[in-house]
Amino acid sequence: MQSTSMTRRRLLGAGAALGGAVVLGSVAQGTARATPRVPADGAWPDELILPEGFHPAGIGIGPAPYAYFGSLLGGAIYRVALATGRGKVINQGGGEGHFAVGLQVDDRQRVFVAGGWGRTVTVMDGVTGRVIRTYEVGNADTFVDHLVVTPRMVWCTDSFSGQLFGLPLGPGGRLPAPHEVVTLPLRGEWVQGPSDGLSATGISTTPDGRSLLVVNIHADGGSLFRVDPATGTARKVDLGGVTLPTTNGILLRGRTLYAPRKSDLAVFHLDPTGFGAHLVKTVADPRFDTPCAAAVHTGRLYLPNSRFPLPPEPGTPYNAVALSLPL
To answer: Rounded distance, CA 310 to CA 292, Å?
Structure first.
């Protein structure tokens, strides 16, 4: 693991790359700032209130009606019931020097957590928060950012080292042994940014499921690349001139790709192979405050607000908002 001074310097660099500042320290992560209001008509709430000072960077929702959020300040995991908005911390994380960035939930209600500068991918029980297994990956420059779960592999981005990590899943979703974890260097048209700035962030599959889509916020003002998972060969996706300068987590549903940006949500329609896409619409919402990822459940799209460049403090409020689909 890295020294505290190196962790501080690199996380500050990551914050700068996102157009914000990151303040490190111990943050109490207990209850949310207010009791969620459930609409009188029985509809699910359109705001999920997170603990004060939590500082989310991702969201995961599986088949059950619960959303999971991780904290950049200490790595705690917060679980929220979508029907009521009520939640609790199910894992306190490891404190200073630990991070929870992107999250994904599989159909067994296991939560996969990208550990940022901690160089880890952690698998937790989504009900109890118990750690099932932790994998240490990469090198001294690794920042494990976002993940995507496929039937045979869990893929993770490394924002500072131009590579992906893969956790092969065996029969019944069996987790791999540590030596089975795959490191896939990115090649071809991939452009890696400077050592103090993010490159690879969000990740998903292509609509046909054969390849991967990876956001590179450095290349040409923010681009999307199609990556061959067998070779690591990357080819830039034609987005029709649209850029993704602050996009972190992305979400694919069918052939629709949702890409949150600093103050809006870009919605693309992709061809089946993922080589090309066109912008369908740009969604603006007054509740957006640097949305950083997206997840969907029962016709609703949920986006956490990272609030960059607002420096996180113990009393800083955080939330996630819901939009009805189709947009």
So the answer is: 14
Distance of CA 20 to the CA centre of its chain: 17
> Residues near 177 by Cβ (< 8 Å), separated by ≥ 6?
none
- Alpha carbon 240 to its chain centroid, in Å, reads 25
Q: What are phi and psi of 45, to 5 degrees?
A: -65, 145
Closest CA to 78 of 31, 43, 40: 31
At 195 the pLDDT is: 80
The DSSP symbol for 238 reads B
Tally of residues, the chain:
327
Interatomic CA distance for residues 137 and 232, integer angstroms: 17
Say how far apart CA 67 and CA 59 lie, in whole Å: 7
Residue 27 has pLDDT above 60, yes or no: no
Contact between 206 and 232 under an 8 Å Cβ cutoff? The reply is: no
Q: How many CB atoms lie within 10 A of CB 279?
A: 15
Residue range 147-194, pLDDT digits in tens: 999 999 999 999 999 999 999 999 999 999 999 999 999 999 999 998
Higher pLDDT, 102 or 40: 102
Among residues 117, 128, 67, the alpha carbon closest in space to that of 94 is found at 117
Q: Domain 4-324 carries which CATH code?
A: 2.130.10.10
**Which letter does DSSP use for residue 326 in this model?**
P
Average pLDDT on 84-95 reads 96
Q: Among candidates 300, 324, 285, which has minimal Cα distance to 67?
A: 300
What is the phi/psi pair of residue 53, to 5°? Answer: 75, 10
For range 24-28, the mean pLDDT: 45
Per the DSSP assignment, residues forming a β-bridge with 325 are none
Domain boundaries, the chain: 4-324
